[in-house]
Amino acid sequence: MELGDIMDLKSQKRISSRILKCGMSRVWLDPSRISDIANAITSQDIKKLIGEGVIKAEKKKGVSSYRKKKNMEQKRKGRRKGIGRRKGKIGTRKPGKKSWISKIRALRKMLKELRDSGQIEKAGYRKLYKQASGGFFHSRAHLKIYLERSGVIKDEKKN
Fold this sequence. Notes:
By secondary structure, the chain is mostly helical. 57% of the residues lie in helices and 4% in strands. The N and C termini lie far apart (102 Å).
C-alpha cells in the first residue's frame, strides 16, 4: 500500500466514519482489499463493505486503571501514608475533621445548657462560643476548667 493509495481513500474514510459514528482516525481499512474500497463511492457501497468486515471501527483506547487499583490495594494495607504524602496538620486531615465536628457540637451544646440554666450570661456565652469556634478549647473538660479558673462559673461541688 502506497501513500498515494491512502490519500485517494480520504473520502471513503470520511463516509465510513459518518456511518460508523466515529472519528476518521478510528476507521480501519483492510490493506488486502484497497482496490475494492477505492471503487466504493457511495454510502451504500461503504455500508456493504462494512457488512463484509472490510471496513471496521477500531476500539477506543481507554486509560488503564491498573495503577489506580494497585495503589488502592496498597492504601488498604496501610501503605503510602508517609510524611511525603501528608498535606496539612493532623487536625486538618480527614479523620481530624470528624473529630472536630463531634467536639464542637459537644462544646456548643454545653454552652447552650449553661446559658439556658442561667450559669453564664448572654455576653459571656457569645465570647465563649467564639472561642470554641476558634479552637481555643480542647474538650468539654477543658472548657469546664477554663470556666472555673476564670470565675465565669462557680464549681457546683464547692457550693
